[in-house]
Design brief:
The chain is of the alpha/beta class. Helix content is 32%, strand content 19%. A six-stranded mixed beta sheet has the order 3-2-4-1-5-6. The protein is globular, with a radius of gyration of 16 Å. The protein starts with a strand and ends with a strand. The relative contact order is 0.24.
């Protein structure tokens, strides 16, 4: 059986201070680098590494010491005008609308529905893996969309899940059928 391991990048200063990061291209901080190293130890050997093109994901992927394929399909949700703003600055009413409506998009940003489409498109290419262990290093929203795909549910399920920095989740592929086998596994640093 094939495996897809989805690894969220390690911590950045934006993560640590509660700022929406989206497409802001921040590097890992010192904690994030340690988290990435610990995650690599827990995950072990992989056959292939795919990464979001953002610096924080690439730095996390680099600890696996193998060739990295960059993929725009795994880039974080575009928060548009909200990039770099505190999560707490978004009104409760707006958050509630966002949770109810997968087509909602931040001003000049991307909806969870659109993000889900691009992630699902990428995942369809992995349905035929039989023994390969593929590592995808990405961000919270694309990984939640991948979990929704594995479970056969809508993208709104992402609001009912939590992914810690440098956590990994795993999907087993058995004859084209995805099965979620691990979720939000971390090594506390």
């Amino acid at each position: 059986m094939g495996r897809i391991t989805l690894l969220r990048h390690g911590q950045t200063d934006f993560n640590a201070t509660g700022l929406l990061q989206g497409r802001v291209d921040n590097p890992l901080n010192s904690i994030g680098i340690l988290q990435a190293q610990k995650a690599a130890q827990m995950i072990g050997p992989v056959d292939r590494v795919i990464s979001s093109p953002l610096k924080r994901a690439i730095q996390t992927a680099e600890v696996f010491n193998t060739k990295i394929e960059l993929s725009e399909q795994w880039i974080e949700l575009d928060y548009g005008d909200w990039d770099g703003t505190p999560v707490a600055s978004i009104s409760k009413e707006v958050w509630e609308e966002w949770k109810r409506n997968p087509n909602f998009a931040p001003p000049n940003g991307e909806s969870l529905y659109k993000l889900g489409q691009r992630v699902r498109s990428s995942l369809e290419s992995f349905k035929s893996i039989s023994t390969e262990h593929v590592l995808i290093v990405a961000h919270v929203s694309p990984i939640k969309a991948a979990i929704a795909w594995a479970l056969g549910v809508g993208d709104e399920i992402g609001w009912r899940t939590r992914l810690d920095t440098a956590s990994y989740s795993q999907i087993r592929m058995d004859k084209g059928l995805p099965t979620l086998t691990k979720f939000n596994i971390t090594h506390k640093t």
